[in-house]
């Protein structure tokens, strides 16, 4: 077994590898850029080596820099994590020349599966089901139209070297094929330096389901069931689960056996994933093979009990797999939510800055449920503009899918993040969405269910009344504390009444509160009663309550006469008045937000790269106004309507804050 390994990565996956290495007694080496000097993976590792400046192309993906760190520390093996150099055959070759083990597959498997055309040909030869299509080189748009007609519309035009949705178009007719072919070719050339294009049948009602495989160097290879990854945004996964709520045992077995056949066809060892697209009739087709550890591997670990990172290390050290296919079962259900530093209320734009508060839910591992949080950040740490905006991977496990979902809801509500924008409200909304609960979703779920983006949710009546009862009881606790403040004037005793009016989601709820030692009973005006129990203390930002025997977790902020509450994807102001003050409050005029319709505001912290207009210009709807760079992504800001530019307040190169005024209009 290795004595020391280097992790050629950062963030949560580096921390994850360190945990497994530590479990089997292996020392670890972290590498870091200047931006990651104080990162969690650097703190956790036994040694750490600086490898360059913050941009990945000056540090984490510079093979020479990583090799230097290996030589300096005497590491015997390297785990690449995912992303960066994890699927780089040249890196695997460099390690081989140095006599250092690569904790991953052979470089030949990486090369074969890294090219979409080559991988599909190998899959076909291995009798793996593939999407009908044309794998040869396509010369021009006329040939593309001819091929598309033979396959049958709709078709998918894809870049051979593509990934992340780049170089990909869907065409429903000849005209769209002509346009899509040239656009995909141009995009592929600029993104990957490879303009080869292929065309295949576009599968309707598609689900993205992948099979985890694991092989050793002794010819053994098994599949560890599937993961459902259909909930995606812009071809990036957001929610994953294992097993899939859609597959039956026969389809699972067929997909698993084909995935193993493909792995063996390329001499695969280590952990890898074979991705399939599955239609509404459970017909499945090979998409690609990822020759690395997947982001979503924890859900597989939770239902199989197999530590995939540990097995990757052992396989790289020459050990045989300690189990066979018959030993792999499915125990319960696991769900993973990817927590990102992106603001769902602003079109999921990336958010950078310092984590002023980072309190994930407590990790739990019992016989009836598990809460697991894989992360690479800490409170007080910074989300950098240079790397992927992932904060954490929150996972839950339980014996059934419904139980796993319910534990995930509570865990999301218990997750405290402040200082940056994050997608926790959106994830909570997905967990409560009827289509997700039913398991009847496709890869178009987010685009179909949130076509105009995410603007929060309104709680259904039953959930709203639970929040009303809880906040009313909390308000009473806060009022009692205020009566006990010392230094009051004589003869001015303050009494806490029993009757209140709670206003939430533009609804009024008269309630009567009667407290006892165990909690409070809240009776609504219509006679319904809720029992609330809690040890919440005024000032606590998180309230964990029990309402009618069921848990309720609220993120709480104090506002005048009430609370700012966040739960289940909803954010609402809850006002709690005495009946008389409620009457008077109803007469008060509503304070309207300031009118910013004649301003261009910066939607995220970032650098102003370019201003595309000048003062005095008349611009049309949809015209580009400015470009903001954040997390190495350029975001073009466009005019929402026809206007004239009267003033420009910022210049290219300026660092801008959220809502900073970039320009003003007439």
From TrEMBL:
Keyword line: ATP-binding, Biotin, Ligase, Lipid degradation, Lipid metabolism, Magnesium, Manganese, Metal-binding, Nucleotide-binding
Domain (Biotin carboxylation) ranges: 1-451
UniProt keyword Lipid metabolism, yes or no: yes
CDD domains: biotinyl_domain (cd06850)
Pathways per UniProt: Metabolic intermediate metabolism; propanoyl-CoA degradation; succinyl-CoA from propanoyl-CoA: step 1/3
Name of protein: propionyl-CoA carboxylase
Domain ATP-grasp: 120-317
Limits of the Lipoyl-binding domain: 587-666
Record-linked InterPro entries: ATP-grasp, BC-like_N, Biotin_BS, Biotin_carboxylase_complex, Biotin_carboxylation_dom, Biotin_COase_C, Biotin_lipoyl, CPAse_ATP-bd
Domain of life assignment: Bacteria
Enzyme Commission no: 6.4.1.3
SUPFAM superfamilies: Glutathione synthetase ATP-binding domain-like, PreATP-grasp domain, Rudiment single hybrid motif, Single hybrid motif
Stored PROSITE patterns: ATP_GRASP, BC, BIOTIN, BIOTINYL_LIPOYL, CPSASE_1, CPSASE_2
Cofactor(s), by name: biotin
